[in-house]
Specification:
This protein is 26% helix and 25% strand. The chain has 368 residues and is α+β, with helices and mostly antiparallel strands.
């Protein structure tokens, strides 16, 4: 499918007309039948506007109504075959929703591990550290539904070294080896699908960008141990062992960072320092336990909506893989009404280059 500049402008004009304030404002989208159920967002955020996506009396949006500039895709018939969206004006890739069959165990590349064990591991990540009031959360306008003890926002694996130069590989100290293994296996499964469905030109472009900034964790090692360096009062030093392998490695991890959150909603924003991202939602109740290899049910309820600044909104079910261009306006809605007290776990696979804070290609990868 294609979107035009006209589509995008109509959407922006509509959003501006819904806004309660002029100038800088935050736009959130609601997955609720009653938009008033998300009034806590207005209490938590200044200059916030909440727009409904479900066809109901409270929502200013009517699905499939010509007066609405937002196209909402939220039925299995629309989504099961997958959708690819291209901006016909700029020729940019906007997003791709992976066909449901690949999500539900029919991926021929790599067999998925047990999703129940993966969700258990995500629960453990959440329990390792509470991070409700971090600066990142404030800047990104992260709002959690409700006010439960389960609210959290965690980042794993590759991230910026806030205390020094370059990057670190971060895994919470309290996270058990079994959970780390389950997360790594599931991440490998997701990566295999991405490599299978994303056009080669896009994958090459992302890989070239990572090579340019020097990111390849498997070929970077320490010159000295963490303990020795700390005793000397110096930070660890690192070196690329095999420059040729580093430059030509086609299997480089394109999305080395993972963010985990429960019941989160994001205001509309862009990530100008990211090149490709993946968002997935999970709910334990949607696991099919009757198959030998546990997968998600082929038909289950919409848990959240992911809306783009071009006027397209995609309903996400458990395990749905949404690959998108983060340099186009985007946001994730609040939970839909079907979500119970256990809520919805949202994961994002990504890499943001500007957080490195370097002016050259001297990237340092080190274990935290």
């Amino acid at each position: 499918m294609k979107v035009s500049e006209k589509d995008t402008n109509e959407f922006r004009n509509y959003v501006d007309s819904c806004s309660k304030t002029k100038g800088s404002h935050r736009i959130f989208f609601s997955g609720k039948q009653k938009v008033s159920d998300d009034k806590h967002i207005l209490e938590q955020c200044e200059n916030a506007t909440v727009i409904g996506l479900v066809n109901n009396k409270e929502s200013p949006i009517r699905v499939n109504n010509k007066e609405s500039p937002i196209r909402v895709y939220d039925t299995p018939d629309q989504l099961n075959c997958g959708i690819t969206c291209i901006d016909e004006t700029t020729k940019q890739f906007v997003f791709m929703i992976v066909p449901r069959g690949k999500v539900c165990g029919k991926n021929k590349v790599v067999t998925a591990s047990n999703p129940a064990r993966y969700i258990d591991a995500l629960d453990e990540v959440e329990a390792c550290e509470r991070n409700l009031k971090g600066e990142r959360g404030k800047l990104r306008n992260i709002v959690f539904e409700g006010r439960t003890s389960n609210e959290n926002y965690q980042n794993l694996f590759v991230k910026a070294d806030r205390g020094g130069k370059g990057l670190i590989r971060h895994i919470p100290n309290k996270l058990t080896p079994n959970s780390v293994n389950e997360i790594e296996k599931w991440k490998h499964y997701i990566t295999s699908i991405i490599n299978d469905v994303v056009p080669t030109e896009i994958l090459k472009g992302v890989r070239a960008g990572l090579v340019k900034i020097g990111l390849d964790t498997r070929n970077v090692t320490k010159k000295c141990s963490q303990k020795d360096c700390l005793e000397d009062g110096e930070l660890p030093d690192y070196v690329v062992e095999n420059e040729k392998t580093f430059q030509n490695n086609p299997n480089m991890d394109l999305l080395p960072a993972l963010a985990v959150s429960r019941n989160v909603s994001l205001s509309m924003h862009t990530d100008n320092d990211a090149s490709l991202s993946v968002v997935i939602v999970y709910r334990r109740e949607d696991i099919n336990h009757h198959q030998k290899h546990k997968t998600f049910l082929h038909r289950c309820e919409i848990l959240k909506y992911f809306t783009f600044g071009c006027g397209i909104s995609v309903g996400l079910r458990s395990g749905d893989i949404l690959i998108f261009n983060p340099q186009i306006e985007h946001c994730i809605s609040t939970n839909t009404d079907v979500c119970d007290m256990t809520g919805v776990m949202t994961t994002s696979h990504y890499f943001k280059s500007s957080v490195i804070g370097l002016n050259d290609n001297d990237i340092a990868i080190k274990q935290e």
